[in-house]
Amino acid sequence: MNSRITLQPAFVLHRRPFQNTSLLVDFFTIDFGLVRVVAKGARREKSRYRALLQLFQPLLVSLSGKGEIKTLTSVESNISAIHLKGERLFSGLYINELLCRLLQTQGEHAGVYESYRETLVALQGASELEPLLRRFEMNLLAELGYAINLDRDCETDMPIVPDAVYRFIPNLGFKVLSLSGGSAPGPAEFRGTDLIALREMDFADEQTVLAAKQLLRLALAEHLGDKPIHSRSLFSVSG
């Protein structure tokens, strides 16, 4: 990574106090992925950084330093801030936390960056939350090399069919359990019809919505480890 970076498009994912008057900021940049940066003096009232280093604010940042932690040398607003409220704010905090946990520092993730930007913009509108979040989670896993195969049985390579029930095996895919459906699927078990609907991003059926959330939690848990996602608790608090 270059010792000097100039006018790099970026978003603040997380920030916390550092030393007496500074902030330690996790930026998501378009060319360098997750970058940890010290913003010196950013907590002072007269700091030129203070008003700009906000979540969901598209920025252009300049950084310097050869180590893992860079120094912020300038920041300016790129376009108008993205304003989120209520569950849409919690959704934004959730995807920020996912990125902080799953991205490698200073690794290029341009595809994830574009998916993140598009999701934030969509969260401002009236689009339903579940498809937005599931699409982002699916794209994130795929970009990181952990794509979920919703097309075929991982053992037989036969196409996933609507009437079957499948067991999800993390990092492998789906194994058919029953070709005739029958009883309701148990933990880590999914109806073929829900998997096909998820593949097509069709959330008309409430059962598909619930199945998609369950599946993505299982898939993400393999890479998140035992530490819980704190922002998930905000959804239950809100309503």
* Cα radius of gyration in angstroms: 20 Å
| CATH level-1 class of the largest domain | Mainly Alpha
Average pLDDT score: 91
The second-level CATH architecture of the largest domain is Up-down Bundle
Structural shape? elongated
CATH superfamily annotation of the largest domain: Recombination protein O, C-terminal domain
The helix content is: 25-40%
Instruction: Tell me the series of helices and strands, N- to C-terminal.
Output: EEEEEHHHEEEHHH
Tell me about the largest β-sheet: 5 strands, mixed, barrel
- Sequence of strands across the biggest β-sheet: 1-2-3-5-4
Explain how this protein is built.
There is one protein chain. With 239 residues, the protein is of the alpha+beta class. It has three domains: 4-77, Beta Barrel (OB fold (Dihydrolipoamide Acetyltransferase, E2P)); 86-145, Recombination protein O, C-terminal domain (de novo design (two linked rop proteins), Up-down Bundle); 148-239, de novo design (two linked rop proteins). The protein is 34% helix and 25% strand. The chain is built from six helices and eight strands. The strands form two sheets. Strands 1-2-3-5-4 form a five-stranded mixed barrel. The protein has a three-stranded antiparallel β-sheet with strand order 7-6-8. Helix 4 crosses helix 5 (206-224). The longest helix has 19 residues, at 206-224. It is elongated. The protein starts with a strand and ends with a helix. 27% of the residues are buried. The mean pLDDT is 91.
